[in-house]
Specification:
This protein is mainly alpha-helical. The protein has one domain. The chain has four helices and no strands. The termini are far apart.
């Protein structure tokens, strides 16, 4: 269980780092839910492919990334668990703290 949490935390760290450096176009007020949903589906397919083609190290990294995107997809579809909501809210709070999105806004709505 701890290893799974570490993988998920690392995937979140990488996502936040990538967002901070690239100022992802997906974190804008003009992004529609459909665009974000399409992005999430694309990322899930990309990381699933990495698991199929990669070794153990890439499997662990891809697993963490898939875990995040599965949570985000469930939130976007309104079928989330409390853990999904907590994960996405924690990321949102971090993005607000970093000044990537403004207070009171979310990256997923």
């Amino acid at each position: 269980m701890l290893r799974s949490q570490q993988r998920q935390q690392f995937a979140v760290y990488l996502l936040l780092r990538k967002m901070k450096h690239n100022r992802y176009k997906y974190i804008t007020s003009s992004t529609t839910s459909i665009e974000l949903t399409n992005f999430v589906e694309s990322k899930l397919n990309e990381y699933a492919e990495k698991i199929v083609k990669g070794g153990d190290k890439s499997d662990d990294l891809a697993f963490g990334q898939i875990s995040f995107y599965l949570s985000l997809r469930r939130v976007l579809k309104g079928k989330s668990s409390l853990q999904d909501v907590g994960l996405v809210d924690a990321i949102n709070d971090t993005l607000q703290e970093l000044g990537i999105i403004e207070a009171g806004k979310t990256f997923y709505k």
